[in-house]
Specification:
With about 375 residues, this protein is an alpha/beta fold. The chain has 13 helices and 18 strands. The N and C termini lie far apart (about 55 Å).
Length: about 375
């Protein structure tokens, strides 16, 4: 323990000496080339001579900046003067990534060799990552809420990628390591394409800029084509999402990505009066009052076997009062066996196509057949 403490102290000192923070009071930034961002509202990138400045807006206080990053190519000399921000040498060669969402994208970008540590390994499905975790090539860094700091210190990563939370109180010992913390606030975007557009940032972090940009372009094209198809629907039926968690039912707000999915698929969000980008907790009686006559009910759940209507009815008596339950129009996605959470953030067109197939079967072609949700059996 004493040697580990000594190592930790030395690591922090070295990190301070080669600080990732840079700033020059006399610095005057010349005009750069803005990277086009069509949908993301919490991300801005500008290319300058020798570096790229990335500004992440605070999703909970949009008048402030959550973090500024300065991406400097590792093969180039450090610019003589830089604005204030966290310097990251790119491409990353070693990283600790907390979420399965971002691990999946890094694999798709062909940069999985740069993943040195992962939190919440039980949620990892990619075969190459699972094999590397088993062999010890990728370190298990524990639970994302209480990561194994000593393990992360041993890895000496170039950066740590994690999802920030409102009023989290900071990152404790993690923030003392001197390792750049990339705050992946993509999940707070107000649209599916807005979140997907963050892949442009992650591509630049891992040396896959062209591939990431191309992947987003194809995703955007596919998404807009499906949305155009849904716009031709004659009706916009109400869609109910998920179910109670404890004593509350978290429903999608008007500016949430799920709310946008429903609208873009030709449906109507019964809770669009709540002008928030996330979810709104309601009492089940409120949900029944506002969405009791919904036509379609989509539920995400995690269990060993597929959910049935009888299981849903036994879970809470109020469920049997909703029209889609009575009309046997309930669809479930078992996230224990599907890649829903890994796939959808950066491939939103896959889910949009599925929603159209369920909400508007009259429009659905073979290419829009469901892959995540299926109708619950009795």
């Amino acid at each position: 323990m004493r040697s580990l403490t000594t190592f930790f102290s030395a690591f922090v000192v070295l990190s301070f000496l080669f600080s990732c923070k840079s700033g020059n009071a006399r610095f005057s930034e010349v005009a750069g080339d803005t990277v086009p961002m069509s949908y993301a509202v919490n991300l801005a990138m500008v290319d300058f001579d020798g570096y790229t400045r990335v500004d992440v807006r605070n999703p909970w206080d949009t008048t402030r900046t959550l973090h500024t990053y300065l991406l400097v190519p590792a093969a180039a000399d450090m610019p003589a003067a830089l604005p204030e921000g966290t310097v990251i040498r790119t491409p990353l060669k070693s990283s600790v990534i907390y979420s399965s969402v971002h691990n999946s994208l890094v694999v798709e970008l062909g940069a999985d060799s740069a993943i040195s540590g992962i939190c919440d390994v039980q949620y990892i499905h990619q075969p190459q990552l699972v094999e590397r975790i088993k062999s010890g090539d990728i370190a298990d860094c524990g639970n994302s809420m209480t990561p194994n700091i000593e393990r992360i210190i041993e890895l000496r990563p170039d950066a740590i990628l994690l999802s920030p939370f409102e009023n989290s109180g900071g990152y404790g010992k993690l923030a003392q390591l001197g390792v750049p913390i990339v705050e992946c606030a993509d999940y707070m975007e107000t649209s599916p394409l807005g979140r997907a557009e963050w892949m442009k940032f992650y591509g630049r972090l891992f040396g896959a800029e062209s591939l990431a940009d191309s992947l987003f372009d194809s995703t955007e094209t596919a998404y807009l084509a499906i949305k155009h198809l849904a716009d031709s629907a004659a009706t916009r039926p109400e869609v109910l999402m998920d179910r109670m968690f404890g004593a509350v039912w978290n429903v999608p707000g008007a500016y949430s990505t799920m709310g946008r999915f429903i609208e873009d698929a030709g449906g109507a969000n019964p809770f669009c009066e709540y002008k928030v980008s996330g979810s709104t907790p309601l009492a089940p009686e409120q949900v029944l009052y506002k969405a009791g006559d919904a036509r379609v009910w989509l539920i995400r759940y995690a269990q060993n076997d597929d959910m049935t209507m009888s299981q849903l009815a036994a879970d809470n008596a109020i469920y049997g009062k909703f029209a889609p339950f009575i009309n046997n129009n309930v669809y479930g996605c078992n996230t224990s066996v599907s890649y829903f959470y890994e796939d959808i953030p950066f491939h939103p067109h896959w889910l949009l196509g599925e929603f159209v197939a369920i909400i508007h079967p009259e429009l659905a072609a073979d290419s829009l057949s469901p892959r995540y949700f299926k109708k619950l059996n009795p």
